[in-house]
């Protein structure tokens, strides 16, 4: 009896260690070269693998201005892996020595952040465990913006993504639509924007407006606005940062002559020749940029948006 009682805990402990080892083997960290204000940087991503064998679909998950958290990116990864899809969580901040861009979005510029999403696609496209034809992307706020911008063919080509490799699905959660191309050409992959009707951080009207422009140019776009849902409606607690940079009123629209005008100020920031107009950006931002950002959870929007995301994944990555 005594030997049996001692052996049982050892057996249980061994089983727990084996289980922990199996779980550990289901995660893998990869790195890929990106850029930080003109200098090369190695950005990392953690792949959460499903149990399924053979090449599997993948969903890239790109964080917002607060960085990667287990309560959001980790939670979404677990839900996606349970569907038999690899979840790829990019960390665009830690390799750059940044913890947050809420008070200074230039700490990791939008251009560099968006570039991460595209070089991640290149890295995943060469991974034999991933079905390169079934890679999607989702993201939140700043990551929602990169998710949307990765659908623009010009951005994809500029990042050096080879022909034949494109994201098969884009699901931006409450992105900024502050950059709006004239007659935008997308890759043709479906785009589903999930927005908060009470979002004062990035707003929702610019994405509604841009969604119409994308659709008019031939893109496959659906826009869902959750009533009374603030920015970060899938988050865990309300927040307010009085020093957070707020660009909700800043909308830069490309014109037919290829120049760029900021909508709120009416200032032309870039000429038709592609050259920035001296002093124009500072003038435009003085008119449109404010301080103070807030957000918080909305249970109904959180539940429905997760269900929506899973539905899009089933339809476009799992084929069901």
Head-to-tail CA distance between termini: 53 Å
Classification by helices and strands:
alpha/beta
Taken in chain order, the helices and strands follow as: HEEEHEHEHHEEEHEEEEEHEH
- Structure annotation, total helices: 8
Major sheet: arrangement of strands: 1-2-4-3-5-6-8-9
- Please report the first level of CATH classification, the CATH class of the largest domain: Alpha Beta
**CATH level-two architecture of the largest domain:** 3-Layer(aba) Sandwich
Write down the domain tally: 2
Report the radius of gyration as a whole number of Å: 21 Å
Description:
- By secondary structure, the chain is of the alpha/beta class.
- It folds into 2 domains: 30-238 and 294-316, 3-Layer(aba) Sandwich (Rossmann fold); 250-288, no CATH class.
- The chain is 33% helix and 27% strand.
- It contains 8 helices and 14 strands.
- The protein has helices at residues 2-25, 70-81, 110-125, 142-149, 153-158, 205-216, 280-288, 299-316, and strands at residues 27-36, 39-48, 56-62, 86-91, 130-140, 169-173, 179-180, 191-196, 221-226, 239-246, 252-254, 260-262, 268-270, 290-295.
- An 8-stranded mixed beta sheet has the order 1-2-4-3-5-6-8-9, with helices on both faces. The protein has a 4-stranded mixed beta sheet with strand order 7-11-12-13.
- Strand 1 and strand 2 form a beta hairpin.
- The longest helix has 24 residues, at 2-25.
- It is globular, with a radius of gyration of 21 Å.
- The model is unreliable at 1-25 (pLDDT under 50).
